[in-house]
Amino acid sequence: MELGLYTFADVGTNPVTGEKIGHPQRLRNLMEEIRLADEAGLDVFGLGEHHRPDYASSAPATALAGAATITKNIRLTSAVTVLSSEDPVRAYQQFATLDGLSGGRAEIMVGRGSFIESFPLFGYDLNDYDALFEEKLALLMRLNESERADWPGGPHTTAIQGLGIYPRPEQESLPLWIAVGGTPQSAIRAGVLGLPMALAIIGGEPARFAPLFELHRRAAAQAGHDPFKLKRSINVHGFVAETSQKAADVFYPAQAEVMNRIGRERGWPPTSRAKFDAESGPTGAQFVGGPAELTDKILKHHEIFGFDRFLIQMAIGVLDHADLMKAIEIFGTKVAPEVRKAVG
Asked: Which fold has domain 2-343?
């Protein structure tokens, strides 16, 4: 069982204190957070990719490379790399470089992206949303298998004839995950390709997504892969503090500001403290509480899913940096050891 954190490095104004955090300061804070996560004994830190003014994480590999030089054990992964609008060769080279800098701790988590800004930014047509991902993922997997690439090319990629792709990673190959947002087709695709799957859960009851894990296992087995060798993760929103009340009071204002802002773009109904508190209950999507409550909720959902990895996004919106650092410390030193002991 691996436990860790992920973030998109939000910037903006703290809704409680009014403090403004810009891109440079957020990136410096991020280095402190990753270093503390490593020191606290967490297993994984993931950094997402967005190309919007409210995030500082448009280049995850670069930021993770900075973190590689100040950490010792924690695995460093994108969460996610928007492969549809990325060059697979450059993505592979960047994460192979990260792997060398970190001593073999790099991973790539790829997805189609939940925002669309990168498509016009890099000259791609949204009508090719899924086709871009499929073709580029196939190329990325080919690059990961062999030092010299032979690739026929396609509508969205250039042909490569026996060219070397460098540097090579310290690991035999880069661990490559597919991130899915809840669609059965995405879970099946990950299984057919024999790739680990990370399932993002940000609303509703997490238990209703459990059938996607079974779809992933079944598709992997039918494609000739050993499903028990493929890792599975759930990636959730949440926060931990000394008490459940403090966790909710710290996390809710920033989380609500982000979800309502995005919700206005997407037509979601506004959130409220009552809704948030309900979703923070034992069966809800918010993993918020004191150490004991968060431990119990993780273990309860481990019984439902049987996941190998649990990642929590605590840095949603602009939180007080000291509160976030304290939450990372608690998660690493109090929650993670209890979860690992219970899971065995």
From this structure: TIM Barrel (3.20.20)
- On whether the pTM is more than 0.85, the answer is yes
Distance between CA atoms of residues 204 and 237, nearest Å: 12
Tokens of 142: 């080919």
Spatial distance between the Cα atoms of 329 and 251, rounded to a whole number of angstroms: 16
Which of 205, 206, 8, 188 lies closest to 197 in space, CA to CA? Answer: 188
pLDDT tens digits, 125-138: 999 999 999 999 99
Distance separating alpha carbons of residues 112 and 96, to the nearest angstrom: 21
Q: Which residues contact 153 (CB under 8 A, 6 or more apart)?
A: 159, 160
Check residue 178 and report its DSSP letter: E
Over residues 160-215, the pLDDT tens digits come to 999 999 999 999 999 999 999 989 999 999 999 999 999 999 999 999 999 999 99
All structural domains of the chain with their residue ranges: 2-343
What is the Cα–Cα distance from 12 to 131, expressed in whole angstroms? 34
C-alpha angle 260-84-44 in degrees, rounded to nearest 5: 70
How many residues in total does the chain contain?
A: 344
d(CA 331, CA 340): 12
